[in-house]
Design brief:
single chain, alpha/beta, Rossmann fold, six-stranded mixed β-sheet, three-stranded antiparallel β-sheet, 11 helices, 21% strand, disordered N terminus
């Protein structure tokens, strides 16, 4: 639990922007995974972090979590240095990874009990809240089943619930919807909306453009370690010179993939339908 002095300090540091990234670089040898990006995440918003595979999204997230040390530049999360203040920072942060990071030898109920113990939470309240979340996600029947036996989607549901139990100020979600069915995706979107309405913020990384377009207040598009577009959806349309376009088309333009996709589609149509569009 956080003592009173720490609580006042946290309240002070959490005012304003919850994440401040300034000229951040992360190199792995000669590979420039992240090459000088700058962005801020405001209080009470869903901030999308989009990019092709290998663009630098997950590397950025790992720096924010304190799992990687920057090569250059700075990152502050809730006012803290992720490397130096990782424990106190994580008291206010929930993380949902692309691959479920949970103890597969335990049951969901045991995982939730463990989280309550480690975070100093009321066990009965955590159990009640966990059951409510699991029921809303259609997974209550698996509370006492070994996690190793669950489907990928149900493992992801357990991870989502685990990230929410301590009521974090900030949620960092790295492709959280993989393996989830349409009903569950709808519920997760509602959970995100309620989290923001209650004063929280979200970093949301995904490859599903339609969902990003629907739920994100602002979006940063990363390509080859560099931010090539940032702002609201309308601002991104202007940056891409694609008025009225979908986020998918804007994304392809800003990441310089639109011409390649057009060429690929044309070749496929010719191969399968013939030059005149006939089979």
């Amino acid at each position: 639990m956080t003592n009173n002095a720490e609580g006042k300090n946290l309240e002070k540091k959490e005012s304003g922007d919850l994440i401040v990234v300034d000229r951040l670089k992360k190199y792995f040898g000669e590979k420039k995974a992240v090459d000088g990006i700058t962005f801020r995440v405001h209080s009470g918003e869903v901030f999308g972090l989009l990019g092709p595979n290998g663009a630098g999204k997950t590397t950025t997230i790992k720096v924010l979590l304190g799992l990687l040390e920057p090569t250059e530049g700075t990152a502050r999360v809730l006012g803290f240095d992720p490397l130096k203040d990782d424990v106190v920072m994580k008291q206010r942060l929930g993380y949902i990874a692309e691959e479920p990071l949970i103890y597969k030898s335990l049951t969901p109920f045991e995982v939730f009990e463990f989280i309550a113990s480690v975070r100093g939470l009321d066990g009965d309240k955590v159990t009640a809240l966990a059951k409510e979340y699991m029921e809303s996600l259609g997974a209550l029947e698996y509370m006492n089943q070994n996690i190793a036996t669950l489907s990928r989607g149900n493992k992801q549901k357990v991870q989502i619930v685990s990230a929410l139990l301590h009521d974090p100020t900030l949620l960092i979600m790295d492709d959280p919807l993989l393996g989830l069915d349409a009903k569950t995706v709808k519920v997760v979107k509602e959970i995100i909306e309620l989290h923001v309405k209650r004063g929280g913020s979200v970093i949301f990384s995904t490859h599903i453009m339609e969902i990003a377009q629907e739920i994100c207040d602002r979006i940063a598009i990363i390509n080859k370690g560099i931010i090539v577009g940032i702002g609201t959806f309308e601002e991104l349309r202007k940056q891409a010179d694609k008025a009225g376009a979908s986020l998918e088309d804007v994304f392809l333009r800003l990441t310089e993939q639109d011409a390649s996709v057009t060429s690929i589609i044309a070749k496929l149509r010719e191969s399968f339908l013939g030059k005149n569009g006939n089979v």
